[in-house]
Amino acid sequence: MDTEQCTEITNNSTPLQQGDILYFHENQDDEKYGIVVTGDCDIAQHKCRGKISYCTITTAKYYISTELLFDFCVLPEMNKLKENVLKGVCKLLNAEQSNSFLQTLLELEEDYLQTQIKDEKLIRKIILLKNMCNKTSFSLIDYKNLFHANNNRDLDEEKLKKDKNKILSKLNSLPGDKYYISELPNQNDNYGYIVHLRYINIISEEDIKKQNHLYRIGHLKAPYLYKLTQKLGAVFSDIGEPEEFEKNRTEINNILIKEL
C-alpha cells in the first residue's frame, strides 16, 4: 500500500533535531518509538542540559486495541457484565451489592469459586470478567466474548459494522492530543502510527549519541513537523472552564432551544 512519505531517513551522523524519530529496539511494542519535541534552539544552545524530551509513538493498531476498541466496544460490555455478575452472585449468596464485593470476588481463585457458587454459567462469566480486567489491549474476539456473555447470543454483523464505523470515524478525526503519521522509515507496519502528545518522556542526549538501546531511524518532514508542534502547544496551552459553568451553559442552551 502506497503512503505519503512524511518522514525521511536519518542517523546518528547528523545533528540531533526536533522531529527526529527514535527506535527503542529492546522495548515492548507500545513503547518502541518516540519523536523528539525539544526545540532545535534549545538543543543547539544546550538549554535542555542534556535532557531531551520526546513523545511516545505507537502503531495505529495498538491505539485501536488499547483505546478506541476499548472505549466504544469493550468497556460498555464490561460494565454490563460487572452488573450482571454482581447481581447474580449477590442474589445467590444473599449478599449486599457493592464495588468492594465485586473486587473481592474477582480476586478469588477458580477452585474456590467452584465450592461457593454452584452455577457454572455464572462462574464462566466471573472468569471472563477477571481475564478482561487483567488486560490492557483488546481484540474483536474479546468484544464478541463479552457480548455473548451478556446477551446469550453472538454479535450480529450489522451491529459489528456500526461499531467498526464508530472506530473508523474516531480514527479519521483524532482528538487534539493525538497525531497521525503514515509511515516510519524502514518499519514494516503499513497501517500508520499515532503520536501521543501527552505522553512526554525524557532521555539523555548522550544516550542518543551513543545509541544506548536505541537508534535514530528518521525525521518528520515539514509541514508535518510544524503541525505536530502546533498541536503539542495547543494541548498544553488549552484552558478548560469550570464544570459548573459548562453545566449551567448546557441547561440555559436547552431552555433557549425549547423556547424557539
In short:
This protein has 260 residues and is an alpha+beta fold. It contains 10 helices and 7 strands.
How many DSSP H or I helices? 10
Tell me the strand percentage band: 15-25%
Q: Main sheet: which strands, in order across?
A: 1-7-2-3-4-6-5
The average pLDDT is: 90
Q: Strand-and-helix sequence, N→C?
A: EEEHEHHHHHHEEHEHH
Q: Given the helix and strand composition, which structural class is it?
A: alpha+beta
Query: What would you report as the Rg, rounded to the nearest angstrom?
Result: 24 Å
Question: What gap, in angstroms, lies between the N and C termini?
Answer: 51 Å
| Largest β-sheet summary | 7 strands, antiparallel
How many strands? 7
Shape: globular
Unreliable stretches covering 5 or more consecutive residues: none
Helix content: 40-55%
Which secondary structure elements does this structure contain, and how are they paired or packed?
Elements lengths: L6 E3 L10 E4 L9 E4 L3 H5 L6 E9 H34 L5 H8 L3 H7 L3 H14 L6 H12 L5 H16 L5 E4 L11 E12 H5 L5 E6 L3 H14 L5 H16 L2
Helix pairs in contact: 2-5, 2-6, 2-7, 5-6
